[in-house]
Amino acid sequence: MHPVRIAPSILSADFSKLGEEVRAIDEAGADWIHVDVMDGHFVPNISFGPAVMKSVRGVTTKPFDVHLMIAPVDVYLDAFAEAGADCITVHYEAGPHIHRSLQHIKSLGKRAGVVICPGTPAKMLDYLLDMVDLVLVMSVNPGFGGQSFIPSQLKKISAIRTMIEKSGRDIDLEVDGGVDAAWAKRCIEAGADALVAGTSVFRGGPSAYAANIAALRGD
Ligand SMILES: O=C(CO)[C@@H](O)[C@H](O)COP(=O)(O)O
Ligand SMILES: [Fe+2]
């Protein structure tokens, strides 16, 4: 298990000054930059695509943690790799061939992540853990920032931590959705070592980002 990494979701940033916002969270201590890509089809919301992501790639050297909520996904993997993704995470539920999607990401030389929705059991990871670098547990239904953490997902985080330890592989366990300082503590206790947060990082504007990030780490 790694020391906890904080990945602010730029879905909650002020889009009118996205570059400044990415620089601000970098300087405030973000470990990764979480990029939520939504297509209005797999999820009922539309965010941004590879061109917008590329426009802010040069602002920071921090890894871009790209969460693709799109279906189909395979046809867009090359574009996100070229736009500067470091880790590309795809939904188990986006189908039709999660194993093929993960193979494709690895073939692009990127870290590969798999994400499961709140209604999807941990067991779905059985035949994927030998190839992923990251597992992302959604603690809200994907599509929007600002939702409430679904408590039942804590049990799933613990179960996946056990699965990862058994696999003997170095796999990050990330949680995404409704994570504030109180839920962050419980996620870490359950075995998470990476936390995505939108609302709880961007709340209060740039002068609050460093304290917000520190609070999620439990500092
Ligand atoms: O992927 C998603 C939502 O689908 C997330 O990354 C959210 O954008 C996190 O925002 P908060 O729940 O922390 O406000
Ligand atoms: Fe996300």
How would you portray this structure in words?
Catalyzes the reversible epimerization of D-ribulose 5-phosphate to D-xylulose 5-phosphate. A divalent metal cation binds at residues 34, 36, 67, 176. Substrate binds at residues 9, 67, 143-146, 176-178, 198-199. With 219 residues, this protein is α/β, with parallel strands linked by helices. It has a single domain, classed as TIM Barrel (Alpha-Beta Barrel). It has eight helices and eight strands. It has helices spanning 18-27, 50-57, 77-82, 98-107, 153-167, 181-190, 199-202, 209-217, and strands at 5-8, 33-38, 64-69, 87-91, 111-116, 134-138, 172-176, 194-197. An eight-stranded parallel sheet has the order 1-8-7-6-5-4-3-2. The longest helix is centred in the C-terminal third of the chain and has 15 residues, at 153-167. The site of 5-O-phosphono-D-xylulose (5SP) has 22 residues, from strand 2, strand 8 and helix 7.
Label this structure with key terms.
binds fe (ii) ion, 8 helices, TIM Barrel, 8 strands, globular, eight-stranded parallel sheet, binds 5-O-phosphono-D-xylulose, single chain, alpha/beta, 219 residues, 33% helix
